[in-house]
Amino acid sequence: MNSDELYIFILIIKEYVFTNCMNEIEKILQRHNITKGGEPITKSYIVDVLNSKPKDELHRILRAGYRLKLNLIGLNKVEIYKGVLIIMREKARIQRMLSLLEKIWEQQQDVRFNQLVANLQHMYSIQNEGYGKRKIKEKDFLGQEIDSSYLDFFFRR
Hints:
Elements: H1 3-19, H2 22-31, E1 35-36, E2 39-40, H3 43-51, H4 57-70, H5 72-75, E3 76-81, E4 84-89, H6 92-106, H7 113-127, E5 133-139, E6 145-151
Helix pairs in contact: 4-6
């Protein structure tokens, strides 16, 4: 694997950690004109990268999560309660997410937890065309309106 292929490989792994979505990765790569051999990177290549033999611990955790995501029976517990279908999330996802956060946090040990989460949200928003950013008007200490914004990942433009 040459340095360009390694760069693309690592970029795909990193973007999947942030987005958990191959469509988003494909858009990001296209937006930045990142190609492999002059050709656009396809979803099938992204799948190949995710399923490839893990190069490090982060890739191993990510690949396991990706494969679990594909196996919906193993991923969710489905029950019917009073005639309503309830899909319960699997408990193992908690440990997977904590492991990912631990790897990232170990690289920035002086950052407080909430600051780490806010930084990750901010980075994700910037890399995804302002996703989750809400613009608002606030009043400053003199009572004048000023433009401001905050991140709300449950808000869709």
